[in-house]
Design brief:
Elements: E1 6-11, E2 17-25, E3 29-30, H1 32-36, H2 42-50, E4 59-63, E5 69-79, H3 86-99, E6 105-109, H4 119-132, E7 156-161, H5 164-189, H6 197-205, E8 213-217, H7 219-225, H8 228-234, E9 242-249, E10 258-268, H9 288-302, E11 308-318, E12 330-332, E13 338-340, H10 348-363, E14 368-372, H11 377-382, E15 387-391, H12 394-407, E16 411-413, H13 418-421, E17 431-432, H14 440-449, E18 457-461, H15 484-494
Parallel strand pairs: 1-7, 2-5, 2-6, 6-7, 10-11, 10-14, 13-17, 14-18, 15-16
Antiparallel strand pairs: 2-3, 4-5, 8-9, 9-11, 12-13, 15-18
Helix pairs in contact: 3-4, 4-5, 5-9, 8-10, 9-15, 10-14, 12-15
Bound molecules: ligand BES, manganese (II) ion and zinc ion.
């Protein structure tokens, strides 16, 4: 994992040296402390020449400003202060990190005219710094942006704010969440020659050090349980499958657990129904659902969430081979329901069918939420802006949608219904694994629904949001870690009281 910046909090003061970041409201409104960092009015002059007006997350950079010993003075736009929400503070942290790249020591001065900046706001700036700092560069033997071809040392960030003690307390929890996001990104970015099912399970097992209980099921155990759907996908790969069960028991012993289930196809070639070559390399990220569940368990354990939470991930590789599953094969899932495999590239639902059933039978959870890079069709419908939400429960859906709005990991609900369910009926078995060209994301969700009985359940199709993400103020890496902040918030807001 890339070097993390160190983030601390202190009282508002005028820094002596290093890089200094101040906020500028719409129309170049500087707070009192910001003005003391800008003795010669360099920011105003630079703003004029650069058309900088303080728009949210815009930056203005003055190198070695006269009248100071600063490396640089950076103004970060805060837009209209009354409209600043959680996501905006994250973005401000992200651009503050990017703008001060070359300095070893950075002070971020959080003040704005006529604006109360809370401890939570300051902590979110810290999280934004952490999220933006991540780069997947472990396989680059030449580190280009440091001196002498070496990687630059991680910077120390001091966030100067009104309530540093409160901000520090809030950041302790957020840091755990941020680490969970970075863990998820790292797992998604890793190529499949490095991260197979066994290696992924080993990394998940490291959560034991945070107090997460880990069980790893191998082929033999899964065969005994009758997981014919998951095992059918795995059978063409030289890499054996794993099912990892993670348990965080931070709630009361009598509380029923809540459960998160992730699709972990470490590489999806399509199998015998092979994918075209273009962009096939992206299918190393077909385990983004499992990565999000693992990152979430890290986050919850790191901040000692007061809830009982199960995380289950189905880890397989979908390959072509003489032993691979064929189109037309009929497999029997753990539920006893039979499935005709029309297309071996619709493999994620086969993995999830057994993982969901196992979870429901063993734990009888209050609800199940699965995450999966399940269909290309969700990209057609929603692009990489919203993840698709499918659910049998309006209340759970509302809670998820609301967590999405506050974290910026947005969801859009799509329908389910008997007319869609009909589309996966099979002549030869209880169901088939594809529903035809139309409504591809919905028929995939409809398939999963057959494995959850009446348990409240939601399915998040993250094929568009989990990977190949456009660069943003808080993420520059291919993998986004989508789902970790969203689900951590869902738990914190609804299931820890
Ligand atoms: N992993 C893919 C879905 C995917 C596509 C994820 C693009 C991320 C980006 C999934 O296993 C798949 O291949 N789905 C098929 C389903 C089809 C065969 C019914 C698809 O979407 O084409
Ligand atoms: Mn596939
Ligand atoms: Zn897949």
């Amino acid at each position: 994992m890339s070097h993390r910046p160190q983030v601390t909090f202190a009282r508002i003061a005028t820094p002596a040296k290093g890089a200094v970041v101040v906020l500028a409201a719409d129309g170049m409104g500087l707070g009192e402390a910001a003005r003391t960092c800008n003795p010669d009015g360099a920011l105003e002059r630079a703003a004029k020449i650069n058309d900088f007006k303080g728009a949210l997350a815009a930056t203005l950079d003055v190198v070695a400003p006269s009248g100071t010993d600063f490396d640089r003075l950076v103004a970060v736009g805060a837009g209209k202060p009354a409209e600043l929400k959680e996501e905006a503070w994250l973005r401000i942290g992200g651009v503050a990190f990017a703008a001060s790249r070359k300095s070893a020591s950075v002070s971020v001065v959080l003040d704005l005219p006529d604006t109360d900046i809370s401890a939570d706001d300051a902590a979110n700036v810290g999280l934004g710094i952490l999220l933006r700092s991540y780069a997947f560069d472990k396989y680059k033997t030449k580190k280009s942006d440091g001196e002498d071809g070496k990687k630059p040392k991680p910077a120390r960030f001091t966030i100067l704010c009104a309530d540093p003690a409160g901000a520090k307390r809030a950041f302790e929890d957020l840091e755990g969440v941020g680490e969970g996001v970075l863990l998820a990104r790292e797992l998604v970015n890793e190529p499949a020659n490095v991260l197979g099912p066994v290696e992924f399970a080993d990394r998940a097992a490291k959560l034991e050090s945070l107090g997460v209980k880990i069980e790893i099921l191998g082929e033999k155990e899964m065969k005994k349980l009758g997981m014919g759907a998951l095992l059918g996908v795995a059978q063409g790969s030289a890499k054996p499958p794993r099912l990892v069960v993670m348990q965080w028991n931070g709630g009361k012993a009598k509380d029923k657990p809540i459960a998160f289930i992730g699709k972990g196809v470490v590489f999806d070639s399509g199998g015998i129904s092979i994918k075209p070559a273009a962009s096939m390399e992206d299918m190393k990220g077909d385990m983004a659902g499992a990565a999000a569940v693992t990152g979430l368990m890290h986050a919850l354990a790191a901040r000692k969430a007061k809830a009982n939470v199960i995380g289950i991930i189905g880890l397989v590789e979908n390959m072509l081979d003489g032993t691979a599953q064929r189109p037309g094969d009929i497999v029997t899932s753990m539920s006893g329901q039979t499935i005709e495999v029309i297309n071996t590239d619709a493999e994620g639902r086969l993995v999830l069918a057994d993982a969901l059933w196992y979870c429901n039978e063993r734990f009888e959870p209050r609800f199940m939420i699965d995450l999966a890079t399940l269909t290309g069709a969700v990209l057609v419908a929603l692009g990489n802006v919203h993840a698709g939400l499918f659910s049998n429960d309006d209340d759970l859906s509302e809670k998820l949608l609301s967590a999405g709005l506050s974290t910026g990991e947005k969801l859009w609900r799509l329908p389910l219904g008997p007319d869609y369910d009909k589309m996966i009926e099979s002549k030869n078995a209880d169901m088939k694994n594809v529903g035809g060209r139309h409504a591809g994301s919905i028929t995939a969700a409809q398939f999963l629904k057959r494995f959850v009985k009446d348990t409240p359940w939601a399915h998040l199709d993250i094929a568009g949001t989990g990977m190949a993400s456009p660069s943003s103020d808080i993420n520059q890496s291919w993998a986004s870690g989508f789902g970790v902040r969203l689900l951590d918030r869902l738990v914190a807001e609804n299931f820890e009281k």
